[in-house]
Amino acid sequence: MDVYLHLIAQGLAIGLLTGVLYVLIALGLTLIYGILHIVNFAHGEIYMLGAMGVFYCYVVFKLPFAATLVVILLLSLLLGLGVERAFFRSLRGQWLQLVVASVGLSLIIQSLGWIAFGIQEKNVPSFFTGVVAFGGVRLPTERLIAAAVGVVLVALLYALVYRTKVGLAMRAIEEDEETARMLGIDADRVAALACAVGFALAALAGAFVAPIYSLNPGMGLEAILMSFLIIIVGGLGSITGTVLAGLLVGVLQSVGGVLLGAEAAYGLVFIVMIVVLVVRPAGLLGKA
Amino acid sequence: MRHPTLALVVLVALAVVGLPDGVHAQKSFKVGAIVPVSGPAAAFGLGVQRGLELAAEDVGVFTVAGEKYKLEVVTYDTVYAPDKTVAAINRAVYNDNVKYGVIIGAGVHPPILPIIRETGFLDFAFAAAGRQITNPENPTAFRIMASSDQLYQTYAVAIAEKLGGKRIAFLGPNDELGKNDAKAIKAEVEKLKAKGVSFVGDEYYERGARDFGPALLRLIAQKPDIIDTDGSPTGSIALIAKQARELGYNGYFVNSTAVLEAKAISDIAGKAGENIIALRIWANPPTKLYTELAERHQKKYGEAAPGTLWETYGAARWLVDTIVKADTFDTKKVADALAGSTYAAHPFGAASWGGEKAYGIKRQIIMPIPAAILKNGKWEPFDVRSGKFE
Amino acid sequence: MKRGLLGLLIAALALLPPLGKPYVLHVVIVVLINVVYAQALYVIMRMGYLSFGHAGYIALGGYTSALLATKLAITPWIGFLAGGIVAGVFAWALGAVTLKLRGIYFSLSVFAFAEVVNAAFRAFEVFGGPAGIAGVPRPALLGTRLNTHLQFYYVVLAVALVSLFFLYRLQWTRFGFTLLALRTRETERLAESLGINAARYKTLAFVVSCFFCGLMGAVHVHYLRFVSPFVFTFFLSNDLMIYVMVGGLGSYWGPMLGAVLLTGLGEQLFAAGYYKSLVYAVVLLVVILALPGGLISLPRILRRGGARERVLPVAADVAAARER
Predict the structure, then answer these.
(1) Do A265 and B214 touch (CB under 8 A)?
(2) Out of A239, A269, C171, C304, which residue is the most buried by the measure of CB atoms under 10 Å away?
(3) Which chain B positions have a beta carbon within 8 Å of A224's beta carbon?
(4) CB contact under 8 A, C284 and A104
(5) What b/e readout covers C223-248, taking b as 16+ CB neighbours within 10 angstroms?
């Protein structure tokens, strides 16, 4: 019994850490949907680009880590601005075409990624090695740090959306764009900014998750599938929903894995997804 | 445009039927590479494609029935999907007159086996799962890699004894390979029951997963000393090792995939990558040909050769030899001749065909199978006596 | 002109086998299958519902027929119908829950369902597990099993023509027109205020759409003589959506055009690896941005001298933007 309890504690701890990672991965998608009502299918590929960016800047070009982060941040912001201008703006209002356009975009980035980055798995050496052990529970240091980064980014995002004027503008155009425009808010600029931040979040998620796992140009697919799962459960467009859902899925997988085996745990997550869809189709905290 | 609808129809027809092929100066002996060259399994497919290309270079011009031929490689990308593999074999056999080929994938073979049987296509298969492809109903299907059954029957008991392992666990991909091999290893461990060796658990992960926490937690709680990771690719085994050690596992890992990069593993997992035992990996080159092919690949393609390169090269050279001796391209005659022959110049050493006892037909390649262990970031030969496979 | 062209096409398809090599027959079979899938998807897409999970219904149909044939030795002729019916039943059950949702919520929920279906087929040995079901037999006619390409081709052609004819006629019935009226939440409320039971129409449309997917899915599986969780994946759902969007939503012939062109293109680019997805994606983006009505609107636009047009009335699109 004692062994079991210890296992569950370990499972819970790892599950929480992993959950925060999932939240980090899904955050950008939630923001872009929340403000612009666009499901950015290219989200997973931006995550991949962020991870590849760390590989090339930090490992290949040997830039210091801080500089690497700045480069990735700037490039992803620019990419977000560019994509919004080139694709999303002209299709604003046509959700079907928007979805399809972002699917096309994701395919292009992925194909180019395979061609440019090659098929060999790449790796970014861990920034922090070692394990923190307390109370019989072992927590890999680098995951702790990544989780901490995740928490910070979530907090920053909350601050941005709920405590700044820009955030207020974002919430305004999400609520009622026409009225917001009439009140003098430059909806196009705000939309572009929201898109840029969303892309930056995706890229940063990739950058921090990269050292924990390995990299290949197909990693975007896992990210987008996980993000979809999280927003289905948590609710599109709700940051709190994303946080809750991410933690829930992480813990379910981990503790479920300990108790029932990995396959069954995987199935358990699906069952939760179905239950949420039947009982609250818009997600736990979604706005239907 | 006067009749845009008509133009559209013509465009459509062209798209469906395609443009006619060009005419070749030299007669070609076409060998198909029906393999994934894009997507996650691309490394395996590229190894095959390049192995065939290198073989073509070395074979040069050969004579059959008084005519001169050159080996031509035709690639059909399957992306390791069943429907694309069906499309590939249809195109190869019915459109391009290709009668010989290397085909990757146990999961994609079932829908094409009927076509292989009906047309007598000579299939050099890369597929770990044994019985489905290698059985008396498919006389033209040859497996050119070691099968799972072969690996387990040859090595499982020997490794467990050498390491003194008492508790064996299994962590494999959640597909037919993983499920099959779990059964195989259970069967082998049963043989050692009298010596106190037991099988303590099997878990499965989704292919492409990066987080093995849930599966590992449960497995490690059973205190195994050897975890068999089946055919997990480089990225997966590296992460498995890393995460398992983080959770406190200090035992050995066994892996049976042919494409395993020591450097990538130590990059990803660091010290955690030590004590991975890899079957089918050569720590020291078995023949000069092996080294030569590795160097040629590096020079020509700019990267390290994927594991499927050597097996493909060996099979291709053997095939051409057989065709020349039999002086025919008839696949049934060549298959018979091939099955009865041996080949001394395979990059791994001497090769022959076997598997009569296990599968009912001699279509399994029998060649030296190495074992290596990862120490200090490099492969070292793992010296363990091997059992017999028939 | 249209009818004549159509008649010519059908005649050509019927006479193809003796003249075409097995490879061409294979390509046309795959094209016909994809065309039916795309047209079935179109039924609900023109109603304003984008499905990311149609592969799930195709899989349900395929597995049903495969299981009936291999475990219970039931002839595929019944299996095809059974496949359609099973898919339809699941559609009816799922529709009750998800059709209330609009826009992306619906899309994600059908996606989730398709993934669950796939995972279920993978997890349980009774469905063959990850290896799937091999040795699925071809149907038999008058004593012979239709094992050759030529023989099965006519089966596929027959099923396809019947399905496409039915779906075509459906569009022009009162039912078909009513579906158009349900495109957005606003128009749906309007329809309801006129006494139309929107939920019933939507559910029926969903059932019809999935029935044909299941039916053709069963035919598909008997063509391959195999089914596994890796045959009908999310990538297929994705592809179908691309066929419909590239072909065009504004006309019945649009999805068909998209399916034929892109399937054919895909076959030609058989060795291109990553460049193939790149080409697909570029075609998709170009069409979306430059030709929102899809390729089928091209002749119309060229005749009008290049005027840019929206696929369906603008007001409806703006209203659709307010969906959450």
Answers:
(1) yes
(2) A239
(3) none
(4) yes
(5) bbbbbbbbbbbbebbbbbbbbbbbbb
Q: Is B303 helix (H, G, I), strand (E, B) or coil?
A: coil
Note whether C324 contacts A237, CB cutoff 8 Å: yes
Q: Please choose, from the candidates C90, C100, C118, C115, the residue with its C-alpha nearest in 3D space to the C-alpha of residue C49.
A: C100
CA dihedral A133, A139, A143, A146 (to 10 degrees): -60
* Of B8, B37, B94, Cβ closest to residue C299: B8
Tell me how far apart the alpha carbons of residues C246 and C298 are, in angstroms, rounded to a whole number.
11
Residue A205, classed as helix, strand or coil, is: helix
What is the amino acid identity at position A210?
A
C-alpha–C-alpha distance, residues C90 and C53, integer Å? 13
* C100 alpha-carbon distance from chain centroid: 22
Distance CA C84, CA C57 (A): 9
Chain A to chain C Cβ contacts (< 8 Å): 118
- Residue C76, pLDDT > 50, answer yes
Q: Do the chains contact at C278 and A115, CB–CB below 8 Å?
A: yes
Q: Are B186 and B156 in contact (CB under 8 A)?
A: no
List the single residue in B with minimal CA-CA distance to A59.
B267
What is the 3-state composition of chain A as percent helix, strand, coil, each rounded to the nearest 5?
75, 5, 20
Nearest residue to A247 (alpha-carbon basis) of A5, A13, A9: A13
Q: Under a CB-based contact definition with an 8 Å cutoff, are residues B324 and B316 in contact?
A: no
Whether A269 and chain C come into contact, CB under 8 Å, resolves to: no
CA B377 to CA B266: how far, in whole Å? 6
Strand spans (E) along B187-324? 198-205, 226-228, 252-255, 276-279
CB contacts of C289 in chain A (<8 Å) are 87, 90-91, 101
Helices C314-321 and A95-117 cross at an angle (nearest 10°) of 70
pLDDT tens digit sequence for A68-106: 899 999 999 999 999 998 888 888 777 888 888 898 999
Task: Report CA-CA distances (Å) from C55 to A40, B176, B207, C15, C35.
Answer: 22, 21, 20, 31, 14
Length of chain B: 390
SS3 C306: coil
pLDDT, residue C145, reads 84
Specify which residues B126 forms β-bridges with: B104
Of A94, A95, A105, the CB nearest to C285: A105
CA A181 – CA C136 distance, rounded (Å): 61
Residues 6+ apart with CB under 8 A from B271: B245
Write out the DSSP string of B98-153. Answer: --EEEEE-STTSTTTHHHHHHHT-EEEEE-S--TTTSSTT-TTEEE-S--HHHHII
C176 Cα distance to chain centroid? 17
In angstroms, the CA A187 to CA A84 distance is: 12
Contact call for residues C53 and C111 (beta carbons, < 8 A): yes
Please name each of the domains of chain C with its CATH number: 21-302+310-317 (1.10.3470)
pTM given for the model: 0.89
End-to-end CA, chain A: 44
Please tell me the distance from the alpha carbon of residue A211 to that of residue B79, in angstroms, as a whole number: 27
How far, CA to CA in Å, does B231 sit from each of A182, A244, B186?
A: 62, 36, 16
Q: How far is residue C18's CA from residue B345's CA, in Å, rounded to a whole number? A: 47
Rounded CA gap, A216 and B110, in Å? 29
Containing A172, the helix (H) or strand (E) segment is: helix A165-175
Q: How far is C317 from chain A (nearest CA, A)?
A: 6
Q: pLDDT (tens digit, 9 = 90+) per residue, B195-214?
A: 889 999 999 888 777 788 87
